[in-house]
Amino acid sequence: MSVADKPFVRTSILAAEPPPPGERGAVAWIRRNLLATPKDVILTILALALIAWAVPHLVNWLFIQAVWSGPDRTFCATTIQGGVQPDGWSGACWAFVSAKYDQFIFGRYPLDERWRPAIVGILFIVLLVPMLIPSAPRKGLNAILLFAVLPVLAFWLLHGGFGLEVVDTPLWGGLMVTLVLSFVGIAVSLPCGILLALGRRSKMPVIRMLCVTFIEVIRGVPLITVLFMASVMLPLFLPTGWNVDKLLRALIGVSIFTSAYMAEVIRGGLQAIPKGQFEGADSLGLGYWQKTRLIIMPQAIKLVIPSIVNTFIGTFKDTSLVTIIGMFDLLGIVKLNFSDANWASAVTPITGLIFAGFIFWLFCFGMSRYSGFMERHLDTGHKR
Questions:
Q1: What are the structural domains of the chain?
Q2: Whole-angstrom Cα distance, residue 328 to residue 350?
Q3: Which of 101, 175, 239, 368 is deepest in the core (most CB within 10 A)?
């Protein structure tokens, strides 16, 4: 056989060819996603027309005609940059937000003591950031400081310890209360949800029945009901002379409610694990808790990261319901200030609600983006 007749076997993979010029770039993306079919063309044109009509009005109202400073409502009601509007209306009243900003953040916390929640916030950020970075070292120590040491230290600083002036929780409010409620609810709900999910799948009838009952009862009632029960009914079952702080009642209610939903999220992840993973762990001679901690639970949590973060986002937003028990979170303190006669105008409420909505969106969007980052880091195979 001559050399020319010998079969050729390639020893290396061919390099990937670049895509055709018409299939890459902004023009190709627009053609593929916005102009692919006649229906897409019509919808794109309608969407662009709506944006062209709405955006100038929004920019004009939110920024150009907005009132950025002023001592009272008269500036928001009738003036804009020193001139009287023909129709007597101005744009957004950001002067109201500026004047009430400290109260939106700290509630009615004493002015001279607001350095205490500021320190707690700084410590929270310092401990949270390395916890969220996968490559950061000493995760165990960081978790202990964040979830065990910081809550105790924060309570002593905020309520009054180390010889500090006592500040009762009814004076707490604003974004501070929103973050406290959501952080505790999130931190408590994940481990409790895992235990409830494992209990619901337990082979022990009593454990399974208790977990199923707890989950179905809590999921079957609104959060307002749970908060009302924790605030009004719980003290009735306590011995005479005992009293539970209102903030603690809200923390218990939010944590219980979120744990029930988290349990079902985790259970969905457990059911998605192939049976072979359980059998493989058993073949290695691992005990129940070793199998769950080292093999099953890491895979289950990875599968349901979007659902877990979705529950966290829901918890963060649901903290606004604590108004029903007389506490004022960010949204509650904003609405409370609508009754201030010095700032009563037609644009004050909508401006305050836009501010509160933007703050909620900012935190929720951050959690959503971090969820996507963790999915990519753990290689869940989720396509974007």
A1: 20-55 (no CATH), 94-109+167-378 (1.10.3720.10)
A2: 18
A3: 175
How far, in Å, CA of 277 to CA of 226, rounded?
Answer: 38
C-alpha span between 296 and 273 (Å, rounded): 7
Q: Among 339, 337, 344, which Cα is nearest to 75's?
A: 344
3-state helix, strand, coil in the chain (%, to 5): 75, 0, 25
Record the tokens describing residue 3, joined without a space.
Answer: 């050399």
Residues sharing a CB contact under 8 Å with residue 149, sequence separation 6 or more, in sequence order: none
The answer to whether residues 251 and 327 touch, using CB atoms and an 8 Å cutoff, is no
How much is the pTM? 0.86
Contact 251, 192 (CB under 8 A): no
Over the stretch 172-224, which tens digit does the pLDDT of each residue have? 999 999 999 999 999 999 999 999 999 999 999 999 999 999 999 999 999 99
Q: Provide DSSP, 31-95.
A: HHHTSSSHHHHHHHHHHHHHHHHHHHHHHIIIIIS-B---SSTHHHHHEETTEE-TTS--S-BHH
pLDDT in tens, 327-366: 999 999 999 999 998 998 889 999 999 999 999 999 999 9
Q: DSSP letter at 234?
A: G
SS (H, E, C) 296-337: HHHHHHHHCHHHHHHHHHHHHHHHHHHHHHCCCEHHHHHHHH
Cα distance between residue 247 and residue 171, in whole Å? 11
Distance of alpha carbon 286 from alpha carbon 264, whole angstroms = 26
Backbone angles phi, psi at 33, to 5 degrees: -105, -25
Question: Which candidate, 320, 336, 325, places its Cα nearest to that of 107?
Answer: 336
